[in-house]
Amino acid sequence: MKKNKPTILIVNDDGITAPGIKALMETMAEIGRVVVVAPDSPQSGMGHAITIGKPLRLDKVELYDGFETYSCSGTPVDCVKLAVNLIFKGQKPDLCVSGINHGLNNSINVLYSGTMSAAVEGAIEGIPSIGYSLDDFTLQANFSHALKYVKEIALQVLANGLPTATLLNVNFPNTADLKGIKICRQARAKWAEEFDERLDPHKRPYYWLTGVFQLDDQGEDTDVWALDHGYVSIVPVQFDMTAHHAIAVLNGWKFN
Amino acid sequence: MKKNKPTILIVNDDGITAPGIKALMETMAEIGRVVVVAPDSPQSGMGHAITIGKPLRLDKVELYDGFETYSCSGTPVDCVKLAVNLIFKGQKPDLCVSGINHGLNNSINVLYSGTMSAAVEGAIEGIPSIGYSLDDFTLQANFSHALKYVKEIALQVLANGLPTATLLNVNFPNTADLKGIKICRQARAKWAEEFDERLDPHKRPYYWLTGVFQLDDQGEDTDVWALDHGYVSIVPVQFDMTAHHAIAVLNGWKFN
C-alpha cells in the first residue's frame, strides 16, 4: 500500500544527542514522517547485543523541536525492538535508517557496530533498512557533504525496495570531494588488538582495548578500496550467516 | 606444525561458573591442553559486543582443579581478544570452543548469542572454532548425552580443519535419544517480541524483553528441522555478511 509520506524510524548507537543522528533526522524529515528512538548513552561496539538480564526504559523526550523522539536505556537493537512493538505497535515503518555513525563501519566492523546491528534488526523485522557511517569519529564530524547521498539512497530504497532479507551498509569517506557511489563487497580484514595495560591505584592491572585495522584483501571491489578512493561505499548485507559453500565439505566428513 | 597435544581455548557467555563450560572443559581435557577464559558474570544476548568505553579486568582464578582458568569482566568476544593477545601472546591455540551454552543458538539466534559471537571472533582470529549449545536454558541442564558428539566434532575439526573464514554452530536437542548429526543451513526465523510492561514503585513504566520464536521456513535442511527431529545440527557459519547476490541488483539502480 503506497502512502504519500513514508514513515521513517531513525536509530543509532552514538546516542540520542550525537550530531550524526541530528543530521540524519533533518535529512529524513525532507522525505517522510520521522520517529526517533535512540540510546540514552553511547553504545558503540555493542554489536547485536540485546538486554535480557534487566528491564528497559523508554521515555518520550522533548529534545528536538518538531521531532517525535524517544530515549531508550538499552542497546541499538533494543531500540528497534521497542520501536516496532511499543511505538509502531506492529504497524511497521516504511524505512529504518541508522546513524549517521561517527566513524566507519566498513568491512568486518559490520559485526561490532551497534549502528549496523540496529539496521540488521530492522531488516529482520522486514523493514527496508540502511546504516550510514562517516569516516570521522569525533563529535565535530562534518556530515554536510554526505547528506545528498543519504537522501538519494533512502529515496531509492523506498522506490525499489531491497532484495529479501538484505539491508544496506553505507559508508562515507571524510571529504567534500566525493567521487560517487560504488556497490561493494565487505573487505576481508580484522582488528589486531593491542591491550593497553595500566595499574589502578591499588596496583591491580586493567586493560584498555585498542587495535589496528589489518586489511587482508587487495580487491578493487571492496568497501575499503572504494572509501580509500573517495567513493561512497554501499555493501548489501544479509543476516543469513550460513556458509552455504561449506555444507558439501562437511557432508564429506565421516563421523564415528 | 602438528603437535601431539593441541591447545584448546574455551570460552562461553553464561559465565565461568556455568555447568555448561565445566562439561566442555572436562571433555576437551581428554584431547588437549585446555585454557579457559570466561566472563565473570552471565553475558547471554551480548552478541558481538566489545568493551570500548571502559577498561577490562582479566584475573587468573583457582576455580577448577587442574585447569588454567581466567575470569574476565568483559563480553564473550572480549574474552577471545584478551586470550589471544595477553595469554597466548599471538601464539594461536589450535582450537577455540565456546559453550556449552545453556539454551539453543540455532537459526537467527547466531546473531544475538554471545556464545556464538565468541566462536565467530575465534574464526576471525584464524582459529578453527566451534560453538556448542543445548536446548535447556536451566542451570540443571544435563549435558551428558551431548559430550561424545562434542568430542567427536572437535576431533574432526582438529583433523580436517575448516574451510577458510568459517566456523561451526553445533546445537543439541534435549534428549538422550540422539539420532546422529545433520549438516544444516540456518532456518529463516525471527523473534516476535512482547514487552512485559510494569510500573516501578515510583509509578514509572519499565519493560522486560520477552519473545516468541517465529519460524518462517518449512525446509527439511535447516537446523530447526534437524533439532525437532532429534538430530544434532551443525551449521557452517561465515562472517562475511555481504549479500553477494544483491550486488548485481544494486548495480542496476540509477543514482542521480
UniProtKB/TrEMBL annotation, chains A, B:
InterPro entries registered for this protein in UniProt: SurE, SurE-like_Pase/nucleotidase, SurE-like_sf
The record's Gene3D superfamilies line, in alphabetical order, gives: Survival protein SurE-like phosphatase/nucleotidase
The EC number on file is: 3.1.3.5
The record, for Pfam families, names: SurE
Gene encoding this chain? surE
| MF annotations from Gene Ontology | 5'-nucleotidase activity; metal ion binding; nucleotide binding
User: Can you quote the record's cofactor note?
Assistant: Binds 1 divalent metal cation per subunit.
Q: Which domain of life is it from?
A: Bacteria
Reaction(s) catalyzed by this protein? a ribonucleoside 5'-phosphate + H2O = a ribonucleoside + phosphate
Q: What does this protein do?
A: Nucleotidase that shows phosphatase activity on nucleoside 5'-monophosphates.
Q: Where in the cell is it found?
A: Cytoplasm
User: Which coarse location class applies to the principal site listed for this UniProt protein?
Assistant: cytoplasm
**Which family is it part of?**
Belongs to the SurE nucleotidase family.
What protein name is recorded for this chain? 5'-nucleotidase SurE
Indicate the secretion signal residues.
Answer: none
Binding of a divalent metal cation: at which residues? 13-14, 44, 101
Cellular component GO terms, alphabetically? cytoplasm
Record key words, sorted: Cytoplasm, Hydrolase, Metal-binding, Nucleotide-binding
The cofactor(s) it depends on are:
Mg(2+); a divalent metal cation
